[in-house]
Amino acid sequence: MSTSNIIVLCAFAFYMVIMILIGAVNSRNTKNNEDYFLGGRGLGAWTAAISAEASDMSGWLLMGLPGAFYLTGSGDIWIAIGLLIGTVLNWIFVSKRLRRYTIKAQNSLTIPSFFDNRFKSKGALKIVSAIIIAIFFSVYTASAFSSGAKLFATLFGNDDNYSSVYLIGLIIAAAVILIYTLLGGFKAVCTTDLIQGMLMLVAILSVPTITYMIISGNGGLDANLAKHGIDNAASFVNPMTVGDQPISWQGIVSGLAWGLGYFGMPHILVRFMAVKSEKEIKKSGTIAIIWVTLAFIASFFIGILGRAFLTSDLNDTTSETVLIRMIQQIFTDNFVLIFIGGIFLCGILAAIMSTADSQLLVTASAISEDMYKGTIKKNASEKSALMIGRIAVIVIAVIAFAIAIDPNSSIMGLVSDAWAGFGAAFGPVVLLALFWKRSNAAGAMAGMISGALTVIAWDYIPFVNGATIGSATGLYSLAVGFPVALVVMVIVSLITKKPDNTIVEEFESVKTAE
After folding, report:
1. What is the tens place of the pLDDT at every residue in 67-86?
2. What is this structure's pTM?
3. Distance CA 203, CA 226 (A)
């Protein structure tokens, strides 16, 4: 192993030890399920904001999305635009009312328990939503594990040993995330997310800024893009083209549809529930929107500038490592620069870990709080419920590990599938639960199932000459699954029994408290 790799490895080791220590410190304050899964509803504005966005912006922000920009130019910017719109709407319309409603609805600690308590479904919605969470978070967590493994393989491997180093990286990433998630629960996860979110932002703002300065002094962007096969720089940075072809309407609609996913993301919604007070939410929203705007802009420039800057060209398989290779190429020559580069590489590791830990925790809460304590053994003690939650973390991590074990796994592909699943299954249910008093348990169940099944059918079943509908049409499954679930929930709610007076009165009390 080279000297530079040893220095980077030391930076990684230092960073991981700090994360584990945070988990250990917070474990002393974890006494019950509300502490473990919601941090006692005591998050401050900064922690809630950065934790929400850091848990959202996983390795796909620093690897998957820049890789897409690197390959085809600005056409994928519609994904970033859609996600930014979704972030803003989520903080403005959902955050405050969801926090208030979850407290009113028997102090719901999880999204499944909120659905059950809101619609008085006697456990049915808990079970179905917990199953959906376990399925799609297994895939989502796999994307984070794959990101960590690719980071290690790119840094410490080569063409001959890439697969074996990928496996080692996968084991290390999974192990560290497991340790501090198991130790400290939600408070540990949110504290580490705050640190990791700030580190991510520093890394993704610094690298493209430095890269642009280097390129500007070496012929400019157009000339350097031309060296790497981009003869028409204007077309490459044009959001209405993909590569050298005009973008299709399906591409624009699919990109914007990513924003719909925010309304159904359990690991983001749970941050709204955990904020200390409603007064903190407005401040949190402002911080979060600024953070995510800067992050998307930086992600775009990483991909575009990386295409012009890197000395060797990347392909479909390696394009997701563009930021890693930029850092390697910039921070060389001496110990100090290499160590700084190692810290920036920890920013990528931070993005990966901050999402995977949140997903594991939400899955654990769904299985422990909703399936075990909420349905299977209602008189379960806090201690036994916590134990089941921690076992669930391990089980989901093992499943995610198995999914991510293929070195050719696409980070963006895995995230896309999970994002669509949650957005379609939960998004319409969350919105109608919060804003439509006529919605009922039957409608919520129908909407949830129809949304999840639409995504699965669209993305996984080869209906069209051996291809999936998604592949055949070029339309993102969330753009179809979300409206299907919304319409189904409205229709079923209208043709079935109205909510009883208790449910309506609770809804009105939440509404009038604004």
Report:
1. 999 998 999 999 999 999 99
2. 0.88
3. 27
